[in-house]
Design goal:
Helix content of chain A: 40-55%
Strand content of chain A: 15-25%
Order of helices and strands of chain A: EEHEEHHEEHEEHHEHEHHHH
Structural class of chain A: alpha/beta
CATH topology of chain A: 2-enoyl-CoA Hydratase, Chain A, domain 1
Radius of gyration of chain A: 18 Å
Number of strands of chain A: 10
CATH class of chain A: Alpha Beta
Distance between the termini of chain A: 39 Å
Oligomer: homotrimer
Largest interface: A-C, 28 and 37 residues
Number of helices of chain A: 11
Shape of chain A: globular
CATH architecture of chain A: Alpha-Beta Complex
Strand order of the largest sheet of chain A: 1-2-3-5-7-10
Largest sheet of chain A: 6 strands, mixed
CATH superfamily of chain A: 2-enoyl-CoA Hydratase, Chain A, domain 1
Number of domains of chain A: 1
Chain lengths: ~250, ~250, ~250
């Protein structure tokens, strides 16, 4: 479910379920977490890039598989978040195509995000009767200002690459053609610098905010636990199954 | 002093003293506070829009009436702030025309602000020998960065709609012609989404910063109490009465 | 090492070692600190502007002189920072030409920064096997968002004036021709306003964050003490002496 490639100190981890637009299921979260743990320990890996295979970055949590019975994942979404929150090396997200849900909110916990020109992001949480996750209720206001962040998280509208860059949600936008190479060049630039300096710099910049990230994620999770299966969430899923527009007017 | 209109789950509250450019007096603060309390309790109201009647949004505190004898307002400015700080539903400010003083700083405690193309904002506090209020010494740096915020709050210069949008002080700018309809469309988009999700999202995003808002407003108020009637404030008011430029060079 | 000029309540302090591109040595930090302490106490000084003489703003710490034996500076870098952190009057930085190292990070602790059109900034810390200072690991993310700040602090690349303004790192950019006069006009605008209001406004805006500034600077200094003379730092300095590209691939 993951493809890993090393080049010039840069480890690229690609989500590899293109048939589902790289939607996350429990196994995918586990595989990504294990790949990040291995990257953390490998001294030959100086910078990590997370991207997607095919035309999407990630369609977000795979709701169909989430509902399916099966063994609980070893790390899951929460375990993956923990590893990213504390990741000691530069962590780059390369949005090669559409990103939805956690495929959008993960940008907030990246050190750097780059985006292909035609890519776009969407947070459909409110449409599902839910709230945002991955600490995005904290990271997005910090990156974009409260008004832009609240609109993006509440309104469930698409945000294109140019708007993401203008808002400060991603550092730069590159043409679709040659996107991976452009990201590799930026990542390799970092990888050629002293690893110890970059690690300390990241700790100095991101360390003081880590506790706040955990608090935001915990508050989001507690709220999600209340909302999943509630009236708005049930109406959203029913409308999806019945291929009709949901009606939240009485909720 | 207030006009209220409901449409598609959106309650629009319009400041309605166009002859004074919607300057706030004690009664106006009370009426607005009561309207917000009613909107909070009414389950048919899902989103609140605050705007102005006529060509101005609000000229700020009406200094002439403030000085006048009369019964103290029930809620006043402080009571209005308290209700906005804790308001559980999306609170939109629609700057239809000029906004001065609290007519500008209220943008900082809105969830979303929209601005008509020809509208502009100004914070004349330093020119009056005073300091800013409505927690803007905290909200403006958070929205615009410290340098832009400090200049806007200190320099008493006009900021036009394009600059407000570029700085992140307002979410979007719409043409004057059709401004109210454009705001209504954005607000109605939110109002059609599950209220409970929006309320939780707002709590997750804004809740952790609320205590800091109260502290900022309290520190501003304590400072204002010292500065009102002081030498610079007296010189500013005298110059205004005598239609001359104030001279602060020896203060 | 410092030139001081007063005009209309604005005290301009110019770094004056143009032959070294205004690199800081211990004496320069001491002279600047004394000039700031004098400006703080002088009631005729209402606004302070820091700029550079010649074609550079400041090339940063003068590493050659740092290594030289000699009496320790009275205030030094740490003493200068302390005075700026608590400076009670508007403190403007006017980037007339290139700024490197502390010549870039000082922008983060300015109230306002203006930049000449052709000026540019660079943070070479990682290339030297070091980390950033002057609390920039806190101030730069606050001004630019975490992604832009982390890239600027880690990647050691130049950032030109237009990019600095777009990112919110400087308030405005003026043409090289007439740059000093344009800055003086903005500073004099502030100086004509009531000093007491500006001082209270600065305290309300900047005061709550001061402890965090000190913590960031202390954490940076503790890290620098570990990294100076370490393997990456030694390789960087050896490569500089030997006029070759440093090789950090095994570090």
């Amino acid at each position: 479910m993951i493809r890993v490639n090393d080049d010039a100190g840069v480890r690229t981890i690609a989500l590899n379920r293109p048939d589902t637009l790289n939607a996350f299921n429990g196994q995918q979260f586990d595989d990504l977490t294990e790949a990040l743990l291995a990257a953390r320990e490998d001294s030959g890996c100086r910078v990590v890039v997370l991207t997607g295979t095919g035309r999407a970055f990630s369609a977000g949590a795979d709701l169909s598989e989430m509902a399916a019975a099966g063994p609980p994942p070893r790390h899951g979404f929460a375990g993956m978040l923990d590893v990213v929150f504390d990741f000691p090396k530069p962590f780059v997200v390369a949005i090669n195509g559409l990103g939805v849900g956690v495929g959008a909110t993960i940008v907030g916990i990246a050190d750097f995000a780059f985006m292909a020109e035609s890519a776009r992001l969407r947070c459909p949480f409110s449409e599902l009767g839910l709230v945002a996750e991955a600490a995005s209720t904290h990271t997005f206001p910090a990156l974009m200002g409260r008004q832009r962040a609240m609109w993006f998280l509440m309104a469930a509208e698409w945000m294109d690459a140019a708007a993401c860059k203008a808002a400060g949600l991603v550092l730069d936008v590159f043409p679709d053609d040659g996107f991976a190479a452009a990201v590799q060049a930026r990542a390799a630039h970092l990888a050629a610098l002293p690893t110890e300096s970059l690690g300390h710099m990241k700790r100095l910049i991101a360390g003081p905010g880590r506790e706040r990230l955990r608090e935001a994620a915990a508050a989001e999770n507690a709220t999600l636990a209340k909302l999943v299966g509630g009236p708005a969430n049930r109406e959203a899923l029913a409308a999806f199954r019945e291929k009709r527009k949901p009606d939240f007017s009485n909720l």
